[in-house]
Design brief:
Blueprint: E1 2-3, H1 9-12, E2 22-23, H2 25-38, E3 42-46, E4 51-53, H3 60-66, H4 69-89, E5 93-96, E6 102-110, E7 114-125, H5 129-137, H6 144-150, E8 156-157, H7 161-186, H8 194-209, H9 215-230, E9 232-241, E10 246-253, H10 257-262, E11 264-266, H11 270-278, E12 282-284, H12 287-290, E13 305-312, E14 315-325, H13 333-356, H14 360-365, H15 377-394, E15 398-405, H16 408-415, H17 417-434, E16 440-445, E17 448-454, H18 458-474, E18 488-495, H19 502-518, E19 524-526
Parallel strand pairs: 7-8, 18-19
Antiparallel strand pairs: 1-2, 3-4, 3-7, 5-6, 6-7, 9-10, 9-14, 10-11, 12-13, 13-14, 15-17, 15-18, 16-17
Helix pairs in contact: 2-7, 2-8, 5-15, 7-13, 8-9, 8-13, 9-13, 16-17, 17-18
Length: about 525
């Protein structure tokens, strides 16, 4: 992909225009590989806000917003503002766009002359994603069907990742763009430099690693590709177990498998342990000359090796070791430079592999209460937002309960906390048995529970609430040793009849529940204005 980027806007900002005919093909492959790896779109812009390499796949929300006249103008304005600000500040910046998506802009200025900006993200943050999505998408004239189709496609990430990902991308981006500029200045056909050849090799490595999700296969692929990258015959990939502070070998070349499987290295001990402790790479060209106290072991043909840390921001997650260069010589600084560029990519791949290896059961834990097995407060609120938006689009209604166990503290004090846990589980079971399959039951906190009843007004909801109250009152645990079994008080409220937003709805149901308490407990109260 050859580009002629000879605009004048960058000159006004004190930057040189990009060399004519710059070939960004390798950058495109790199950008697409990292985008696939991170599962977020990335784009490359020049210093005037012009797109050099567009994202391989845009966020569905962005596509929809840009498809309308208002959204397209706002998006162009936001990109131009981001490019201008980050080049002026000279540091990574995180933005929240008009559609409530977060994105980051990374300034990369090569040799103090040529400005690039990498823009990526277009994601929502875990914990506020549902609220941000619905609030951000309003105002663009989308019908209910379009919003419903967009909702499952939104990408969410932990808030911390929004700040760690840019630094990782930045560490990889600068050397590659510098290499592309160097090639363009020398002439686009000049590919003789060792560094340029190395980056073309990196391009192939990125392609090989990006699709791999299986963790064991990923470890093997990372080690094989890192060895091939620098022409090493032997090597190992070690992963850090933070709990035990030990490195263990996950993949090895030129080493007995039984030995590799059983080898554990404590952080701070030996070469690999020191690399993990300090987080600093080491290149040794002759171990006996540079470290006289260490003798080269007979199984190694040469005396040269490289050990580098695998890091996510400042956190070490493992170590790559390579030795015995196939040509019989010593490893060079160029080899070290290539491995360090590759290490950033490998670290992201390992982190991603760990995520994808999570079982569905573990994923479920993020939205369920471990004691009762009910949904947790966060998931409950997400579903409330969804129900509110559904009702706004289709002119329906839904009801919610707030439930509190009567005299829970007295029960806990009399029988102990283990008995209190059994009570919570028993109430959960009785509540679940009283609702329909489409209803949502959650532990809202402490001895409080909450329920969403879609397509149900409060008149019908009160019938279900009464069935639930009686179910708890009559429930007894399998091995009942208690002289008394607490009851529940329930407050019922309806959307939109009683409230205009979810916090107001919960407040109304809560007020009805406390009125039930004041009226003698063990009863259902429906909110009335």
């Amino acid at each position: 992909m050859l580009l002629d980027t000879s605009g004048n806007d960058m000159k006004k900002n004190g930057y040189a225009s990009l060399p004519g005919g710059i070939d960004l093909s390798s950058w495109r492959e790199f950008q697409n590989g990292v985008s696939l790896l991170l599962d977020i779109p990335l784009s490359l812009y020049d210093g005037s806000g012009g797109v050099l390499v567009p994202a391989i796949k845009e966020s569905p929300v962005c596509e929809a917003v840009r498809g309308c006249s208002r959204g397209a103008g706002l998006c162009r304005e936001m990109v131009f503002k981001a490019v201008s600000q980050v080049l002026e500040k000279g540091s990574v910046y995180v933005y929240k766009c008009h559609a409530n998506q977060y994105f980051f802009a990374i300034p990369v200025v090569v040799d103090s002359r040529y400005p690039f900006v990498v823009i990526g993200g277009h994601v929502y943050l875990e914990g506020s994603d549902i609220k941000d999505f619905y609030e951000g998408i309003t105002g663009y004239g989308f019908d209910g069907e379009t919003v419903s189709k967009l909702r499952p496609s939104i990408k969410t990430i932990p808030p911390k990742s929004l700040f760690t990902i840019p630094s990782i991308v930045n560490n990889m981006a600068a050397p590659i763009l510098k290499c592309m500029i160097s090639a363009a200045e020398k002439g686009s056909c000049d590919t003789s430099s060792a560094r340029l050849k190395g980056f073309y090799a990196l391009e192939q490595v990125y392609r090989a690693i990006a699709p791999v999700l299986d963790r064991e296969e990923l470890y093997e692929t990372i080690l094989v590709k890192s060895s091939e990258l620098v022409g090493a015959e032997r090597g190992s990939l070690m992963i850090l177990d933070n709990k035990n502070n030990l490195l263990s070998i996950k993949a090895a070349r030129g080493m007995d498998k039984a030995l590799a499987d059983g080898l554990k290295v404590k952080v701070g001990e030996g070469i690999s342990g020191s690399i993990a402790a300090k987080g600093v790479p080491v290149i040794v060209k002759d171990i006996e000359d540079e470290v006289p106290s260490w003798k080269n072991r007979p199984r190694y043909r040469t005396k040269s090796f490289i050990s580098i840390p695998l890091k996510l921001e400042n956190r070490v997650i493992g170590v790559i070791n390579v030795s015995d260069k196939l040509c019989g010589g010593a490893f060079s600084e160029e080899d070290l430079h290539l491995l360090l560029s590759f290490a950033n990519y490998a670290s992201i791949a390992i982190e991603r592999g760990a995520y994808y290896s999570m079982s569905e059961e573990l994923k479920m834990l993020s939205m369920t209460d471990p004691l009762t097995g009910l949904f947790n407060r966060r998931y409950f609120r997400e579903r409330l937002y969804e129900e509110v938006e559904r009702v706004k689009r289709h002119d329906g209604c839904f009801s919610t309960f707030i439930i509190d166990i009567d005299n829970f503290k007295a029960f806990n004090d009399r029988y102990g906390h283990l008995a209190g846990d059994e009570l919570l589980k028993g109430v959960s079971k009785a509540v679940r048995e009283a609702v329909r399959s489409m209803d949502v039951v959650a532990r809202y906190g402490g001895e409080e529970f909450a329920v969403i009843l879609p397509h149900t007004d409060k008149k019908d909801a009160s019938i279900i609430a009464e069935r639930m109250r009686k179910g708890v009152q009559d429930y007894r645990p399998p091995h009942n040793i208690f002289e008394e079994w607490p009851t529940i008080s329930l407050g019922v409220a309806e959307f939109p009849a009683d409230a205009s937003h979810i916090d107001d709805l919960i407040n109304k149901a809560d007020r009805a529940m406390y009125l039930a308490k004041r009226m003698g407990k063990n009863r259902v109260v429906v909110y009335e204005a």
